[in-house]
Amino acid sequence: MIPARRTVLRAVGAAALLGLGSGCARIPVDSGIDSRTLSGRSHPGAPYVRALPPEPGATAQEVLAGFVQAGVGSEDDFAVARAYLTEEASAQWDPTARVTIYSGSKELQVREESEGHLVLALQAVAMVDARGVRSALAGPTPRELAVAVEEVDGQWRLREVPDGIFLSEAAFESLYSPARLYFLDARETHLVPDHRWVPLRRGAAAVLEGLAAGPSAFLEEAVGSHVPQTTVISDDAIESGADGTARVEVPAEIAELASQERLLAMSQLEASLRSLRVLSGVRLVQDGQDVDLGEERRVERALPGHRPLAAGETGVVSLADASSAEDPPQLVPDLAELEIASPAIIQGGGLAAARSRDGSTVLIASTDGSVPLREAATGTGFVPPRVDGAGWVWTSVGSSAGALLALSGQGAEQDAKVDALWLSGREVRALDVAADDTRMLVLSGESGEARLELCAVVRDADGTPLSLTEPVLVRTFLSDVTQICWYDETAVVMLGTDPSSEELRAQVLDLSGAVEQLPVPAPDTVSLAGSVVAETVWAASGSGQLRRMDGEGWQDVEVSGRDPGFY
């Protein structure tokens, strides 16, 4: 059953609406829910919401309201919603084209625009396209739905409607689930998640269809896939057990691939299905037998490091034992005697980078002496460098000329500028590369406003950066954001200002749209870093006081340092 706190629209009676001759009708958006669990091959636990058909003698405005609210009922290709349309309009209407998510705290309004034409006004908060990619709007945004109506056998019906359906925030939360479609990085060593929203009734099937259709636009040039686009997914290939386990028949197009390609494709398939939160398990089946990819053979998701570090009084120090009174161990021998800031180390150790304290120099070194110390870039105002798993150090000057610097751990002759024309004229504040070596977060300032964007690094098969893709905007719920870093493969830790109180705040923002507020940081906090693997967040003040999140607050530690991070 759907949790009681969630409500879904149902069509309202004539008493709630005015007739066609009235200037405007107000439609309540919060009402009871009629639901049951679907059986058979539907997704386990998926809700069934009863969409109500048109009432005999309903006014044109009631028909429009009923059509909008019938978007909750997807059974039989939205048969109930189609009942509000003329035969011709029903044949042309595509309910899967998009979902407009509107605010459930505002009443919908219907007005007559002219004879035979109505307009429904709502406050949209997000859009989901046909591929399940969700775009959050900056806030509730007025949208209008214009329709044409006509009488058919004495009953009002809609003869012109836009494609797509409309759902309140509560209805969308009940009927859809976030999912991650996994593709492959350029070197085929990591799985790269692509965030989507799928209808719960077809959760597993929708995930498989999304994989076959390919990645979102911002990832297209940066990732690969061994799931053939010709893959045909049948609902009959998916069985849902009562315990929430999905038993999925490996499609023939994948089963017939060569050994290595088949392994990569099934790694994508399994990880994507496991991303559905309501599935308790996934079993891949081929010719009636369970398929075991084996821990050593499958390609895994890429998660951030768990070893904490910081810039010490000199050098890069470990925070693994921050309660000790002894001096913390140095992690990068060549930097041990230097005053540095913003250290970063490749996950697991090796290539390392840092800034000089004044930000005028980017230094490259290593934890094991494999990379000699060098001043890789000099100038003014470099943002904190970040190291990716392919052996590149990323940074930028604060005043961007439309490019980022990719500095090679192999030597200066391979250093490059990577175009990012969309950053031209902006102040770059921070950047971070995900553990999959593909997705990059870039925080910049434009006209005094913080702007967080997600793009992807296009590389050759050896991992050499070639370009950056056009970004997508990530909606933040803080103003004046000053720092961001990956927390896990789907979430970002950020430091900024509460727009209502103008006080310093820290939060974890999931790219699906969910927000977790962290304990209020001390007012002198200037930097933070978190890792879901380490299950903690570190913060630092400008004077070198380090704090670790402990339960519902921040605890001071004995070690002094700045710019915490993980590797």
From TrEMBL:
**SUPFAM superfamilies named among the record's database cross-references:** Tricorn protease domain 2
| InterPro entries, sorted | GerMN, LpqB_C, LpqB_N
UniProt cross-references to PROSITE patterns, sorted A to Z = PROKAR_LIPOPROTEIN
Q: Which Pfam families match?
A: Germane (PF10646), Gmad1 (PF10647), LpqB_N (PF25976)
**GerMN domain ranges (all copies):** 204-295
This protein's name: GerMN domain-containing protein
Please give the organism.
Answer: Candidatus Brachybacterium intestinipullorum
